[in-house]
Amino acid sequence: MSPSDNGDALVISSDPYHPANLIPELCRGFYQLGWVTGTGGGITIRLGEKVYIAPSGVQKERIEPIHIFVLPYPQPYPETDRVFLRRPSLNLKESACTPLFWNAFELRDAGSCIHTHSQHAVMATLLWPSGEFKISHQEVNQMIKGVRVGGTGRALSYLDTLVVPIIENTPNEEDLKDSMHAAMVKYPDAAGILVRRHGVYVWGNDWEKAKAQTECLDYLFEIGVKMKLAGLPTELSGEQNGNVAI
Amino acid sequence: MSPSDNGDALVISSDPYHPANLIPELCRGFYQLGWVTGTGGGITIRLGEKVYIAPSGVQKERIEPIHIFVLPYPQPYPETDRVFLRRPSLNLKESACTPLFWNAFELRDAGSCIHTHSQHAVMATLLWPSGEFKISHQEVNQMIKGVRVGGTGRALSYLDTLVVPIIENTPNEEDLKDSMHAAMVKYPDAAGILVRRHGVYVWGNDWEKAKAQTECLDYLFEIGVKMKLAGLPTELSGEQNGNVAI
Amino acid sequence: MSPSDNGDALVISSDPYHPANLIPELCRGFYQLGWVTGTGGGITIRLGEKVYIAPSGVQKERIEPIHIFVLPYPQPYPETDRVFLRRPSLNLKESACTPLFWNAFELRDAGSCIHTHSQHAVMATLLWPSGEFKISHQEVNQMIKGVRVGGTGRALSYLDTLVVPIIENTPNEEDLKDSMHAAMVKYPDAAGILVRRHGVYVWGNDWEKAKAQTECLDYLFEIGVKMKLAGLPTELSGEQNGNVAI
Amino acid sequence: MSPSDNGDALVISSDPYHPANLIPELCRGFYQLGWVTGTGGGITIRLGEKVYIAPSGVQKERIEPIHIFVLPYPQPYPETDRVFLRRPSLNLKESACTPLFWNAFELRDAGSCIHTHSQHAVMATLLWPSGEFKISHQEVNQMIKGVRVGGTGRALSYLDTLVVPIIENTPNEEDLKDSMHAAMVKYPDAAGILVRRHGVYVWGNDWEKAKAQTECLDYLFEIGVKMKLAGLPTELSGEQNGNVAI
C-alpha cells in the first residue's frame, strides 16, 4: 500500500481507550514525568494485527490522533520496505523507534512498548558501567513486584533478582535494533532494555502493563541511583548470598 | 453475601465528597506526588460501618467510582472469609492492603488509611537502618505539629519527639499484617508504620486528617533524608538531652 | 462586631481577581510547589481597610471562597480581642499566621504576605546556622533583581547583597510575632524572614509582588543550598571584597 | 508609530497557534518547569516581519494575549528608537530581553527565542567555570541529537561535541546584548548562550524547534550537572581523544 492520507477512520474514534486517543494522552503524561522532552521517546500500541505509532521528531505532548501511523502486523514484506495501513497527511515520518518496537512484538509478543529518555534510566546506565543494571533480592525494593518476567510473563517476586541489560548507544536509533535483539535473546527474563546515555525500552502485554512496568522500572532506576550516590549497597558481592544487613 | 455486581448505588453519587468519588480523585493527586506509581499504594475510607477500598493492581490515577469495593465494618466473619457489600462487576480483586487497613480501623479506630511507595519514605527506611525513624525535638521540623499522637489522638507539639516504627518487608503484602499489628501495639503513639524498602502506612480520624498526616510525615522523611545526606544531625545521642546547636 | 456568618457578600464575587477567589487559587498553586502541604502555610491579601485570611489547619489546596475570613485594618482594639468583618459559618479558626501577617502590614505597609514551608527555605536555615541567609553580590544570582528593598521598596540591583534574617522557631506560631517584629526592625531592608526548621514569611505591596518575591527568594534559597552542597562559595569572607572568581 | 492601544486585531485570534495565544500558553508550561518563576524568562515568536513579545516584569504564567507587544522586523530605525506595531493599553513595558532576542533574529535568522532561568542552566554555569559548557561525544547523551548546529542548521549527530558559550552576567539585562552578540559570532555553531548565574538563551527556526532545543539543552545541563556532582567524567582531557570507558 502506498502512502496516502486515507485511513482517517483508523484513528478517529470517540472511545478514549482507542490507541489513537490513548497515545496522545499518555504522551502528555510522559512529558510531565520528563520522559519524552525535546521530542524524544514515545509509545506504541498493538491491537492484534494493527500497530499504532506516533511520528518522529514532534513534540510528544502535542500529538493528536490524526498524527498517528497505523501499520499491519506482521509486516508482509521485509522491514526495509515498511508497509502502512495509514500515514498522516502531514509531512511526518514514523517514529525512529519503529524497528525497536518490533523487537518487543516479535520476541515477546508484546502489545505495547514504551521508550523514555528518563534521566533516572540514563543515570542508571552511567552508575552501572557494566552491561547490566542489577539489584539482588536483599537490596531490592517492593516495586520489583510490578515487573513481569520477560515483560509479558508471570510477575516477579520480591525475592527475585532484577536484571536489566544495558546496550551501548549508536548514532542512529534504528541501528540499536540488532543489539537490542541480541540482548533480548540473551536475557529472556528481562522486562526492558537500557541504552547507555540514552534511555530505556519497556514492553508489556498491553499498554496498561507496559506503562505500569515502565513506572516500576523507572522507580527502581531512581531509587537505585539514589542508593548508590548515598553509598548504600545495591548489589551483593559473590560471597554475600545470605542474610545481609545494610 | 456472595460476590455480585449489585450495589452500584453504593458507589454512584453526585457528591464529590462521597468516598467512591474521593478515592479516585485523591489517587490522581497521589500519582502526581509519585506516591502510587506502577499500580502501587492507595487509600481506604471508612464511614461508620462501610469501608471503601480500591482494587489491587490497577493504575491508581485511572480508578473510577465503579471500580470501588465496599465492605461491612466490622467483618461478621473471620477475615479469611472476607465479606463484601459490593464488588465491581469487572475482573478485579480488592487491594492487597486490605488486612493492613483493617489494623488501622481496629487498633486506632481510624476513618481512613493511606499507603504510599514514596521514595522519601523508602530512603528513610534505608538511612535509618534500625527499627525506628526518629527525630528528636531539637532537630525536628515544624511539620511535626501536623501529626497526631497515635494518628487519631491530640496533635504533637513542636517539642515532642517523633518516632515512626520500621518493619521489615515480606514477599506478600498481606503477610505484613501481623508485624504491622505488633508494631502498632508496641508504639501506641505512632501515627504511621514504615515498611523497609517498600513504603509507609498512615492513618487518621478521617480522610482529611489521614491525608494531611501523610503529607506531614512524607515532608519529614524527605527533609530528614536531605539532612542526613548533607551531614546535618537528625537525632540526639544519649548524652545530648539539652540545648543542641547544629 | 461579634462573630457571625453574615458577610457572605464580602467573599462572593465573579471577579477572579477578588481576594476571596485569588486566595484559594493561589493556594492550589502553592500546593503544587510543595509550599503548603499538610495544611501548613498560606497567604493573606489586604485591600485598603480589609484583610482576607484563610482558615487554620485546613487543606490549603481545597479552600473555597466561603472559607475566607475578613478582618478590618487597622484593628480597632488590641489584637487579643481580634475583630472580624466576616467569619465563615463553619467550625473554622483564622490562620495562626494572622499576627505575623500583621507585622508585614504594620511595619512595611504590605498589601500581601505569604508563608511557605518550602523545603528550600528550611534547608537554607539549616545550612546557614547563623542568624542570616546572606549571599554577596559576586555570588548572587540574577533572581536577586526580583526582590525589593524591605519587600515594598525599590528593586534590588544585581550588585546588592541579599540578606534574609533567620529567627528561631517557637512551639506556637503566634509566639513568633515578637521575634519576627524585632528582626524586621533590625533588618529594615529585608524582604522576608526565615524561621529555622519551619519556613519563610515574604511580603510585598500587593499579592502579585508578594508572590513574585516569594518565588525569587525560594529560587535563591534553592540555588544557595545546591551551591553549598556542591562546595561552591556562596558568601565572601571579610578579606574578599573585590573580584572573586569561583 | 507612537504608542497606542490600537492594534488589538494583531493579538486577538481564535487560532490556538497564533503567536499571541501561543506565548501565554507556552509561558504557563515554562512556569511548571521552573523556567520563568518570579516574573523572569520568556519567549518571543517572529513570523516574517512581525515580532511578538511578552511584557517585562509580569507573572509569566498569567500573561494574556492582550498583554502582547508586536514589533516590526527589521526595525526601521536604530533600536534605541524602538518601533512598535502594537503596545498593550496597560502600563506595561516590553521584555528587557528584547535586544537579546534581536541577536537571534539578526545573526541566526531565528523565528523564535526562549530565555529561561532554569536552575540546571545556572548550575551548569557554576560547575563549568570556564567560558564554555562542553560535553565531548564519548560522554554526551542522546539528547544532543535534538540540537541543531547554530540553532537553525542541521541536527547534531550523536558523535558531535556540544559546546554552549557562557557569558558573564551584567546588572542590566539589556547590557548583555553585546557580549551575547560577540559569543554568537565567535561560536557560529552554538545553539544557545548561557549567562553565568542567570540562565540561558536558545533559539530555533520556529517556536517548535526553539522549544524542543531548549528542552534538549536543559536536559543536557541537568544530566551534566548530575554527572559532575556524581564524579562521572563529562569532558575528555586533551590526550583522551579515542575510546574512553567510564
Most extensive chain contact?
Answer: A-B, 25 and 20 residues
Per DSSP, the total helix count of chain A is 5
- Shape category of chain A: globular
Give the radius of gyration of chain A: 18 Å
Order of helices and strands of chain A: HEEEHEHEEHEEH
Number of domains of chain A: 2
Let me know the number of strands of chain A.
Answer: 8
DSSP strand content of chain A: 15-25%
Task: Explain what the structure shows.
Chains A, B, C, D: Catalyzes the dehydration of methylthioribulose-1-phosphate (MTRu-1-P) into 2,3-diketo-5-methylthiopentyl-1-phosphate (DK-MTP-1-P). Chains A, B, C, D: Its EC number is 4.2.1.109. Chains A, B, C, D: Keywords: Amino-acid biosynthesis, Cytoplasm, Lyase, Metal-binding, Methionine biosynthesis, Zinc. Chains A, B, C, D: Pathway: Amino-acid biosynthesis; L-methionine biosynthesis via salvage pathway; L-methionine from S-methyl-5-thio-alpha-D-ribose 1-phosphate: step 2/6. The structure is a homotetramer. By secondary structure, chain A is α+β, with helices and mostly antiparallel strands. Chain A folds into two domains: about 1-95, 3-Layer(aba) Sandwich (L-fuculose-1-phosphate Aldolase), CATH 3.40.225; about 115-235, L-fuculose-1-phosphate Aldolase, CATH 3.40.225.10. Helix content of chain A is about 30%, strand content about 15%. Chain A has helices at about 20-30, 100-110, 120-125, 175-185, 205-230, and strands at about 40-45, 50-55, 70, 110-115, 130-135, 160-165, 190-195, 200-205. Chain A has an eight-stranded mixed sheet, with helices on both faces. Chain A is globular, with a radius of gyration of 18 Å. The termini of chain A are far apart. Residues about 1-5 and about 235-245 of chain A have low confidence and may be disordered. Chains in contact: A-B, A-D, B-C, C-D.
